[in-house]
Design goal:
about 190 residues, 9 helices, mainly alpha, about 70% helix, single chain
Length: about 190
């Protein structure tokens, strides 16, 4: 995918997320802990998310009007434009089901941008006369480690995939006889739990 098409795709994902957060009660609870305004490629949408995050933290209800008011109060938006823009996002949001997916895509795109920036800076430093390769490498590895940690979701998540993983591991173990536990006295339960 070309860089311009990827940029357009991420912009659309960011708009979808903001629209869903404005539309569906409780949708913000899924993503505000693990997503930050700096993760947004579009600065304007990052500012809106920052307002939403602050409103969620203070227990305020989200709506295009309330978010626009807070956004304007911070001096980040023009009065009429802010509310019109947020109403457009609100009206275009069709489902809350993709909120976590949008947040994950935004984080992933941020991670790619941050990684590219860190590598580019390290390369530029290494090309300078007298550059200390070890210091540059250590700094780059530290930055990459921080980027990796920051992009990991830390909040609650659906347990469906975890259950599938546990079931698959248990099934594999039962085929190979690799797991043996303490007998319960109930043969069927012992069979199920190995």
């Amino acid at each position: 995918m070309s860089p311009d098409r990827e940029k357009d795709r991420i912009y659309s994902v960011e708009q979808s997320l903001i629209g869903a957060l404005l539309t569906f009660d409780g949708a913000a609870d899924e993503v505000v802990a693990d997503l930050y305004p700096s993760h947004f490629a579009n600065k304007r949408l990052g500012e809106i998310f920052e307002v939403i995050k602050a409103m969620v933290a203070s227990g305020e209800a989200l709506s295009p009007t309330s978010v626009a008011t807070r956004w304007r109060d911070r001096g980040k938006a023009k009065p009429r434009e802010a509310e019109e823009y947020l109403h457009e996002l609100w009206a275009s949001s069709a489902t809350a089901a993709n909120v976590q997916w949008c947040a994950d895509e935004i984080r992933k795109a941020w991670q790619e941008r941050a990684t590219a920036k860190a590598c580019k800076m390290a390369l530029e430093e290494l090309q300078e006369p007298g550059a200390d390769r070890e210091k540059v490498t250590d700094r780059l590895l530290g930055e990459l480690d921080n980027i990796g940690k920051a992009s990991q979701s830390r909040g609650p998540r659906p347990m469906g995939q975890d259950l599938r993983d546990v079931y698959s591991a248990s099934r594999e173990a039962s085929k190979t006889g690799g797991v043996h536990g303490i007998p319960t006295g109930f043969s069927r339960l012992d069979w199920w739990t190995s």
